[in-house]
Amino acid sequence: MTSVTESASHHENLETLSVRQLLNGINEEDKTVPYAVEAAIPQIEALVEAIVPRMKAGGRLFYIGAGTSGRLGVVDASECPPTYGVPFGLVVGIMAGGDGAIRKAVEFAEDDPEQAWKDLFDYEIGEHDSLIGIAASGRTPYVIGGLTEARKRGILTGCIVCNPGSAVAKAAEFPVEVVVGPEFVTGSTRMKSGTAQKLVLNMISTTVMIQLGRVKGNKMVDMQLTNHKLVDRAARMVMEETGVTREVADDLLARHGSVRKAVEAQQAENR
Q: Which residues are catalytic?
């Protein structure tokens, strides 16, 4: 396997550069990431099209990873309920070393090839579910082991990696390989690789949720109203959709709890 993520940076003597030079260099590298993601869209498409029917049939989506990759999976999973109003547990992020590793690295947690399946087993993962392994290097034993065991049991498997021809990609039925090239700081995959993985996760979860009917037009009609900003946004959405006043919109939201239900209630009343 070619370890592009471990290749030497294109930038030398970083400690001698000014703040502006460092920032410009990082930005220069970051600009290349969306093009690497674009090249992987056919792979992302194949993965999403395989996930959607399983979730429509009641399946869940799981992410596993270690370090930055694991944290990104946890972030994406945790954002789905408030953004799209889906139940907690429909999208699950699991990290090597447990939730404590989100804040503080757990030494060698990623090196256990058996632990991921044990973690997934606790969630009673089954053949209707889907599993995405996230590993920039493509060689994380925790991720390889989890994907291998899941695939044996008929669970749909995908991955997001940043090296070509990796062991993680070989373990997954639907690999997504986003090769972003050497990092600005050699080997620091929390940079371009992490950015690429976040972009791909955004694409996967957003597209899946749209396909599951959680967006109407271009609006998050099922979002949880958990702060004043979101309540204000929801009220404006109800007003735009139904033509009611702000006072009526606020009342509808208070009674029905979401934009979708508020709009449906008002439309039913107008019939």
A: 79, 110
